[in-house]
From TrEMBL:
One of its GO terms (molecular function) is L-isoleucine-2-oxoglutarate transaminase activity. InterPro entries: Aminotrans_IV, Aminotrans_IV_CS, Aminotransferase-like, B_amino_transII, BCAT-like_C, BCAT-like_N, BCAT_family. It catalyses: L-leucine + 2-oxoglutarate = 4-methyl-2-oxopentanoate + L-glutamate; L-isoleucine + 2-oxoglutarate = (S)-3-methyl-2-oxopentanoate + L-glutamate; L-valine + 2-oxoglutarate = 3-methyl-2-oxobutanoate + L-glutamate. It comes from the Bacteria. It comes from Sinosporangium album. This is Branched-chain-amino-acid aminotransferase. The modification N6-(pyridoxal phosphate)lysine is found at K205. Belongs to the class-IV pyridoxal-phosphate-dependent aminotransferase family. NCBIfam families: ilvE_II (TIGR01123), PRK13357.1 (NF009897). It holds the Pfam family Aminotran_4.
């Protein structure tokens, strides 16, 4: 590992950036993850030398040899967080050091080098400061930040893991993730496919997890559902998570979420909601829940609400559930009061309209 406190970013501004008018046109209707800002971060790593050639550079395609390791062996992982415009015009992010820590947990699992947390956060600060005009002012919109790392060694041989890597970070103005806003989603219980098994990469935010999930997401859509819900790999019975989001259940006066067994992605939104539960007058509980308990709980009314949570879509209600041999609705299929309260509280902290009692807000500029 390198001691990188001396790592300083070379700044190369984009001479061909978008005009203010072009930028305003993008910001009027940003969608999600479709248009990127004028700059990006790039830092190289070489075994024995550590991190080097740190730069803020114009956003541009990468030139990589077709035999580069990432294309063949998928040695890659990423993070996702947002920069939020506050009412007074300043820009903040939410718990970026938690993303930095998770970035390094992913790095360990993928046999890739860790990036000092301070370099991770500084790189995002530099990117957001440089492209601050790209942080939307529209309520509920944000600048989505996507830091990631790829293996850059060239060659198909057995000499792996790679000895060289590149850390990159890009940014994209974002409306809400699901175009329907807080409209409830319908979910498909995947009993045919598995996202993660014990000892696998389920807790790492790696692209490979997503690559393996698309076939199930496609099946969910073919079944008339919006999203896939993953179950455990062994019995296909215990609820794990939904697509790229963690799940919460309102069970009596408790907020329940599946425990982090190593096959779930440890969401920062999930962690934040567990912390906020007490303040919202709810007990928080982690454990396991079977699909039978989910169905019978909804039928008896014991489970009154279900929602998914993650950085991109914040909190999204789950309105109905379908599996190979079962289907049911959650509550009356509309967003419940606890779901809306949790969402409002989180969004309020992120946009500076609620007190930040946990020091989650990190000022950028
Ligand atoms: C990123 C992600 C989440 C949510 O994590 P947050 O830190 O809350 O954004 C949940 N599940 C998967 C599979 C993810 O990749």
């Amino acid at each position: 590992m390198t001691s990188a406190p001396q790592l300083s970013f070379d700044v190369q501004l984009n001479a061909n950036g978008r005009t203010p008018a072009e930028r305003e046109q993008v910001l009027a209707n940003p969608g999600f993850g479709q248009t990127f800002t004028d700059h990006m971060i790039s830092v190289d790593y070489t075994e024995g030398r550590g991190w080097h050639d740190a730069g803020l550079v114009p956003y541009a395609p990468l030139t990589l040899d077709p035999a580069t390791a990432v294309f063949h062996y998928a040695q890659e992982f990423f993070e996702g967080l947002k920069a939020y415009r506050q009412g007074n015009g300043s820009v903040v992010s939410f718990r970026p050091y938690a993303n930095a820590a998770r970035f390094n947990l992913s790095a360990q699992r993928m046999a890739m080098p860790e990036l000092p947390e301070s370099v991770f956060v500084e790189s995002l600060e530099l990117l957001v400061q440089t492209d601050r005009e790209w942080v939307p002012t529209t309520e509920g919109h944000s600048l989505y930040l996507r830091p990631f790392m790829i293996a850059t060694q060239v060659g198909l041989g057995v000499n792996y893991p790679s000895k060289t890597y590149r850390y990159l970070a890009i940014a994209s103005p974002a409306a809400s993730y699901f175009s329907g806003g807080v409209t409830p989603v319908s979910v498909w219980l995947s009993t045919e496919y598995t996202r993660a098994a014990p000892g696998g990469t389920g807790a790492a935010k790696c692209g490979g997890n997503y690559a393996a999930a698309f076939v199930a997401q496609r099946q969910a859509v073919a079944q008339g559902c919006d999203q896939v819900v993953w179950l455990d790999s062994h019995e296909h019975r215990w609820v794990e998570e939904m697509g790229g989001m963690n799940l919460f259940f309102v069970r009596g006066d408790k907020l329940f979420t599946p425990a982090l067994t190593g096959t779930l992605l440890p969401g920062i939104t999930r962690d934040s909601i567990l912390t906020l539960a007490a303040e919202l007058g709810l007990k928080a509980e982690e454990g396991r829940l079977s699909i039978e308990e989910w169905q019978s709980g909804c039928e008896s009314g014991e489970i009154s609400e279900v929602f998914a949570c993650g950085t991109a879509a914040v909190v999204t209600p789950v309105g109905s559930v379908k599996g190979a041999d079962r289907a049911w609705t959650v509550g009356d299929g509309t967003p419940g009061p606890v779901t809306l309260k949790v969402r409002e509280e989180l969004v309020g902290i992120q946009y500076g309209t609620r007190p930040d009692t946990h020091n989650w807000i990190h000022k950028i500029c």
